[in-house]
Design brief:
Glutathione S-transferase Yfyf (Class Pi), Chain A, domain 2, alpha+beta, 10 helices, two-stranded antiparallel sheet, globular, four-stranded mixed sheet, Glutaredoxin
Length: 315
């Protein structure tokens, strides 16, 4: 991680644990918002006005948090408004690295260089997603939940306003479901995979499968989590489900059942992957290479050939 702007050690997946040996995720450091008129959003400072060509997204196909934002960017037709750079799927000893998809905006080799450009004394992990402002030379936000919602409403008429992922009449229900899904499933798989005690692992494991069972029941009424309306809750659930059988089931020891064993969840994934924004941001090769390159969990770095995913695009 970075300490006072200096890279201090080889990358490690677990930076902090609680008293039970449970995985503790770092809090996002940059929390400003893009708004149509440049006014301050729910957090951070103002001055980040929605403008075409001003913002650049750093993301990773392996990362579920970054993929949330990639999906929202495409659903809202912001591809020509916000440019993007994708880091390599395998973490180097200095964290995320730019490969063939070079950093054409800042000329960086590693993502941590972007963080120290924004704050020369930054302390913390350099994470994706991160949204860069070319005008002010800083990171607007590195919080995926905020960036997802920013894509939905922050760009005003620059985005496709016929798509609304956070509809007012569903807002309270979306917030409630997100609040339940995040600790139990989105972060629950990481709590299981990076647990350092049996107690912490078993607690996370139980949360993951209780939530999968709940979602399986909820989707009996389908096609989406809120009937026939696609919302940000679907985006947030999809990115975890899409990685489950290929990575979390084996690498993170979430092996009670596969998503393939849940008929409603499997059909749900098939419906979502048929939507271009989901299909075009799903990269199984990056997902498998990235997760199975975590040395602390897979010292040999051997990437499994399977599994076959019935819902996933072929080739």
């Amino acid at each position: 991680m970075l300490v006072d702007g200096k890279w201090t050690a080889a990358w490690q997946p677990v930076q902090a644990s609680d008293a039970k040996g449970g995985f503790v995720r770092q809090t996002s450091s940059f929390r400003s918002w893009i708004t149509p008129d440049g006014a301050a959003g729910p957090t951070g400072e103002g001055g980040f006005r929605a403008e075409p060509g001003r913002y650049h997204l750093y993301a990773a196909y392996i990362c579920p948090w970054a993929t949330r934002v990639l999906i929202a960017r495409k659903l809202k037709r912001l591809e020509d408004v916000v440019s993007v750079a994708i880091v390599e799927p395998v973490l180097s000893d200095e964290g995320w690295r730019f490969g063939d998809d070079r950093d054409t905006v800042n000329g960086a080799t590693f993502l941590h260089e972007i963080y120290t450009r924004a704050d020369p004394h930054f302390t913390g992990r350099a994470t994706v997603p991160a949204l860069w402002d070319r005008h002010r030379g800083t990171i607007v936000s590195n919080e995926s939940a905020d960036l997802l919602r920013m894509c939905n409403s922050g760009f005003g008429a620059l985005a496709d306003e016929t798509v609304d992922l956070y509809q007012a009449d569903l807002a309270a229900e979306i917030d409630a479901l997100n609040a339940a899904v995040y600790p139990a499933l989105n972060n629950g798989v990481y709590r299981a995979g990076f647990a350092t005690t049996q107690e912490a692992y078993e607690e996370a494991f139980a949360d993951v499968f209780a939530m999968l069972d709940r979602l399986e029941s909820l989707l009996a009424a389908g096609p989406f989590l809120f009937g026939d309306r696609l919302t940000e809750a679907d985006v947030r659930v999809f990115v975890t489900l899409a990685r489950f059988d290929a990575a979390y089931h084996g690498q993170f020891k979430c092996n009670l059942r596969r998503i393939a064993d849940y008929p409603n969840l499997s059909a749900y994934l098939a419906r979502l992957i048929a939507i271009p924004a989901f299909r075009d941001t799903f990269n199984l090769d990056h997902i498998k290479r990235g997760y199975y390159a975590i040395k602390s969990l897979n010292p040999t770095r051997i990437v499994p050939i399977g599994p076959e995913l019935a819902w996933a695009p072929k080739g």
